[in-house]
From TrEMBL:
InterPro entries cross-referenced by the UniProt entry: Chemotax_regulator_CheV, CheW-like_dom_sf, CheW-lke_dom, CheY-like_superfamily, Sig_transdc_resp-reg_receiver
Organism: Paenisporosarcina cavernae
Keyword Cell wall biogenesis/degradation on entry: no
Segments forming domain CheW-like: 15-154
4-aspartylphosphate: residues bearing it: 234
Protein name per UniProt: Chemotaxis signal transduction protein CheV
Entry-linked PANTHER family: CHEMOTAXIS PROTEIN CHEV
Length: 301
């Protein structure tokens, strides 16, 4: 998995590739961008009094990494013999973690339009499922890996208290559009930006709806700067991802001057060029909310 040459080299195509893996009887997907490598299970060192989802720690090329037992996370049991199970080494939110799964099968290419939002009837407030992809008679479930890690260690998530480090703040009534599919993160972003003085926020669950809103403004021949002064977008979203949203904004002469800040768990040195290709003004890795606020200050005050 280390060599991703030839995989989604262009940004803003609204495509993604998912590594399919199994836990119990269900098939799940993880964005290939998050996956560093896939290994046979390694010997574990148990950690007393650790979270129920933490199986232990392993040493991988000198780095000590936690192993998350995905069967425990999903409330099921492994079905594969131990010698067929796999470790998925992933990196996001500026950290590395290992997910222990039943098996890893293949890589699929989809568009973000292929991903359906889970129904509220079966999703539930504590569900880790953030998307469903139909593959014939089968379904591929997409998990909120960021939520899984924050549930284990809340300190890895967005912290409203980080804003207090910036000191007393008074901000104007500038309007900010935020595209973020996670209900939890929308709530946290609203709380933190409100604490930072930015209370005029308009949220959308995906890039498609966000872009339609921006188009509706300029189609009335209104100056976008009178209605929206800045866009914050995640990358991974159903229907239209953040890179595609950014590219479409920058390709539209009526919107191109609108500053776009990408706020995503996928911001790494290896992937930063993707945001640069589509014209994002800044890219901030979750959960660095204080850094995001300082970047907002630079562009709209």
């Amino acid at each position: 998995m280390e060599n991703k040459q030839g995989i989604l080299l262009e940004s803003g195509t609204n495509e993604l590739e998912l590594v399919e893996f199994k836990v119990g009887k269900n098939a799940y997907g993880i964005n290939v961008i998050k996956v560093k490598e896939i290994l046979q299970p390694l010997p574990l060192t148990m950690i007393p009094h650790s979270h129920d989802h933490i199986e232990g720690i392993v040493q991988l090329r000198g780095e000590v990494l936690p192993v998350v037992n995905m069967a425990n996370v999903l409330g099921t049991a492994f079905h594969s013999p131990e010698n067929e199970q796999k470790f998925i080494v992933a990196e996001f939110n500026g950290q590395r973690v290992i997910f222990h799964v039943d098996q890893v099968s293949k890589i699929h290419r989809f568009t973000w339009n292929d991903i359906e939002k889970p129904s509220e009837m079966y999703q539930g407030a504590s569900s880790q499922i953030i998307g469903v992809i139909k593959m014939g008679a089968e379904m591929l479930l997409l998990l909120d890996f960021e939520k899984i890690i924050v549930d284990i260690n809340p300190s890895t998530g967005i912290q409203v208290g980080d804003i207090t480090k910036l000191g007393p703040r008074e901000r104007s009534s500038k309007s900010i559009l935020v595209a973020e599919d996670s209900p939890l993160l929308r709530k946290l972003i609203q709380e933190t930006l409100d604490a930072a003085g930015y209370s005029h926020l308009t949220f959308f669950e995906n890039g498609e709806d966000a872009f339609s809103y921006l188009e509706s403004i300029v189609n009335t021949k209104s100056d976008i700067a009178e209605h929206v002064q800045l866009v914050i977008t995640d990358i991974e979203m159903p229907r239209m991802d953040g890179h595609t949203l950014t590219r479409k904004i920058k390709d539209d002469a009526r919107l191109e001057k609108l500053p776009v800040l990408i706020f995503s768990s996928l911001i790494t040195n290896d992937l930063r060029h993707k945001g640069e290709q589509v014209g994002a003004q800044e890219q901030v890795s979750k959960p660095e909310i204080a850094e995001l606020v300082m970047k907002i200050d630079q562009y709209i005050l």
